[in-house]
Amino acid sequence: MPWKLTPLLLFLAWVAYQCSAQARTDLLNVCMDAKHHKIKPGPEDKLHDQCIPWKKNACCSAKVSQELHRDTSSLYNFNWEHCGKMKPACKRHFIQDNCLYECSPNLGPWIQEVNQSWRKERFLNVPLCKEDCQSWWEDCRTSYTCKTNWQKGWNWTSGSNKCPTGTTCGTFEFYFPTPAALCEGLWSNSYKLSNYSRGSGRCIQMWFDPAQGNPNEEVARFYALAMSAGAMPQGIRPLLLCLALILPLWLHE
To answer: How confident is the model at residue 76 (pLDDT cuts 50, 70, 90)?
Structure first.
């Protein structure tokens, strides 16, 4: 009898691997269920300017990518310049942030369900490469804002965001004294400052050269694999189903 178990155990190991691999795939190459995202990612040859790096596989349309470059976009009526003119060097980081949010199909491991009127999903604690966060902070430290969390708490009575009563405009460096304060606090922890550098395969790059491929694909695969390996309550059900299908065949031997 023991010798009969060997091929069965090998087969069950293969089945378990296939089941876990399928779970990982569900986190890859996906779009969020949000206001302007496509249902599935795909080629978009006419993406605009800073969103071009995602043109081979994007969750955003060309029209959305154009709106992302406007100071007050019709997508959300959000005005970056709520405290006066934002410096161009700073603004380009916000445009790139928007392109990543709307266009990237590589944020699956960090997507969370939310109960909001304008979206059903968001991403949370995306590990942003330390150089991207540092340069964002450096280029924006002398521009002006009035809030530390831009996701909520604005005065929308005019139709676009205005500083709420009781706040005053100050430099980014005043409201965000460190790079982590900016990257993590700005959008309610959408990002988390990573200790890893660009090119490490362990952090999401906001900026990359599309001629060299999209490095965030590798990063998403790494974290999806890690999450699947550690998510026993989610992975055990398909494994048990596989075992249930195989067990009767073994018992009839």
So the answer is: confident
> What is the rounded CA–CA span in Å between residue 253 and residue 251?
6
Residue 213 φ/ψ region, left for φ over 0, alpha for ψ in the -120 to 50 degree band, beta for the rest: left
CB atoms within 10 A of CB 252: 6
Does an H or E element contain 120, and which?
A: strand 119-123
Instruction: Tokens for 229, please give them.
Output: 């390996």
Q: Give the model's pLDDT for residue 27.
A: 85
Q: Is the dihedral of CA 148, 151, 154, 159 positive or negative?
A: positive
Other Cβ atoms less than 10 A from the Cβ of 229: the count is: 12
Query: Amino acid identity of 8?
Result: L
Q: Which secondary structure element, helix H or strand E, spans residue 126, and what is its range?
A: strand 126-128
Residue from 117, 42, 128 nearest 76 by CA: 117
Task: Tell me the C-alpha distance between 199 and 131, whole Å.
Answer: 11
- CA dihedral for 203, 204, 205, 206, sign (positive or negative): negative
For the segment 112-134, the average pLDDT, to the nearest whole number, is: 91
Residues 144-198 have pLDDT tens digits of 999 999 999 999 999 999 999 999 999 999 999 999 999 999 999 999 999 999 9
The predicted-structure confidence for 238-247, as pLDDT tens digits, reads as follows: 554 455 455 4
Beta bridge partners of 171: 144
**Cβ proximity of 202 and 186 under 8 Å:** no
- Let me know: does 56 contact 214? Beta carbons within 8 Å: yes
